[in-house]
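User: Round two. Same drill as before: sequence, then structure, for each protein.

Assistant: Same drill it is. First protein:
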Amino acid sequence: MKKALIVVCLLAVGMALHAQTKTDQIKHIRQVYAQAKQKVAKMGQDGKAAHTVHIRQIEMGAPGDEYTPEVDTDTQFYFDRIGGGSEQGITGKAVCFFMSVNWMADGHTNYREYLFDPVKGHLLFAFMKAETHAGFKVETRYYYDAKGNCIEQKHKVQDKEATPESHSWNDWKSELAQGNKNKGLFDLLLNTELPYPELGSAHYPSSTPKVKLLKDIRAAYAKAKQKIAENDKDGGLKNDIEITIHDQKSEDFPPVTTLLKCYYEHIQKPSPYQRYYFISEKTESMYGETYEEYLLDPKPDTQNVVFIYNQGYAEGEEMEMRYYYDENGHCFESKVSDIVESEPVPARNKAGYIFSIFDEFMQ
């Protein structure tokens, strides 16, 4: 009897310690959340460079669709540079500590927040608030430990406390997976090291005459520019993704702003998919600015880069380069300024890296 009583007491103490640990964890997460919100509010102030990534996607489907609601997705990442130092301009790792996603379509709204450990980077907390055009509302809160286990969850339906089974919008596993996917996209943007992933595998020359290749690429470029003008005008059928990055890699580097923009279209036959056709990148800092364009092959079922244009200004000098590629990834024509040191293969590899960013976001 005494042994049984001792066992029961030990179990009760263990449960109390576990409950206390859980309480401490949640308290810590809420403190980190409050600190993150303060940092977000002050980001870019007090003379310090901002560390943010803003992704805006507007999607309106394809011409001729019976019903095409506009989908507007606004994603914000906030991060710090951890490690590194001022000696030799060593840059620190970019660690995202907070992000938000605001999604709107056809009267539906969906807002999410993800809180990450500010040092180690794992997910700590996920919040979702959603509402349909009919007025159905759901709120969820998930708290995670360092191993990705959900230690606490709270649900509301129609502003009233509810159980996890009261809705099917998400669960703790789906939010954990989404948070980790977003973190992967962030790391791809800011923590990817050389070499860049490469588009295509073969580099043997095409059998198509050079004159025809140049003619086809220039015609595709003109058509892409026309579609971009239609996309960007007020009231146009918009299908694009825009990424703005504000960063300062270390104290020895000036603040840099990078703007990436991807244009795509919806292909319906033989099966529906999104086809990218043009990507641009603009970078600005006190050292100068660069502007790059990447034209993708307009042929069906291909996403190969066929043309790259780069224009840069540094120390009062202008640099330009143009690279033309065939369907095998072989650069058959190039026009570059005398002072340009870039080569066609690294340029195309960078195009592969940029393409992979947008491809990851669309999945």
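Second protein:
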Amino acid sequence: MYSQGLIGADGATHEDAAFLEAFQARIDAELKIEPNDPMPAGYRKTLVRQIAQHAHSEIVGMLPEGNWITRAPTLRRKAALLAKVQDEGGHGLYLYSAAETLGVSREELVDQLLSGKAKYSSIFNYPAITWADIGTIGWLVDGAAIMNQIPLCRCSFGPYARAMIRVCKEESFHQRQGYEIMLTLSRGSEEQKAMAQDALNRWWWPSLMMFGPHDADSTHSDQSMAWKIKRFTNDELRQKFIDATVPQAEFLGLTMPDPDMKWNEEKGGYDHGEIDWDEFWRVVKGDGICNRDRMKARRKAHDDNAWVREAALAYADKAAARETAVAAE
């Protein structure tokens, strides 16, 4: 998911060999890099891009599920979904804060998102059509996110790693919530089972795309792994996700929408069909089903709530003026 944040990343760095050697020695010794520590420019730029993409994804990810809060089938489901959407907003704020420690402002990051310069995860450009989609998002999308995020708890950059510890705890709840919805549907009426199967059919392949392009096409992964921003390659994480998810689908009584899916005894994992990479790149470049709607919603929210930002700044200015006046007495 957040490997997509490395697409087009500029990890180029121009420090001298002695500096880079000393920095790599700290990384190899598993010492955390903190904001005020010396770091290569490429390391800083890579982190800003990845953390910002992660934060944008949490915020934009609120949209497909937020649309279902009023339509959830029971009060219990509404309350759980409301709590989940609220968590996602909090995750975005943690991550924007982590990015700010690298010297970039939150306003700059948000402007990059709204202008289209910065991206968010491709998965959020697909529509949530039925209630089963909400279960599938929790089960598959949050499940894939957890597979990506747990290794980030050991990221070499301290603020990012520490933010991810709390995020992963909350994402684990989200994944269980989604799976429980799918379990209820798959044990329900024939219509509910068909709804669950349809949601799996539509979300399976986009969920696999969350891990980013194949390793051979992921040009910045090697450097990111050397700096221990990433701990596993895109294909390694994708395989872990598939191997964990197929037995869960079997327990639900659902059929994987991949006729080539089969257990490979030799590698100890599942073989799978080819991902539609043309679709992946089309969505990443802004031509997905919901790309335009998602950005329209974010821009509208930003404009409609400008008064809140202005009021907060005015209050801060007043408070600072009062403190100055009291200090001068």
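The beta strands are 262-264, 269-271.

User: Perfect.
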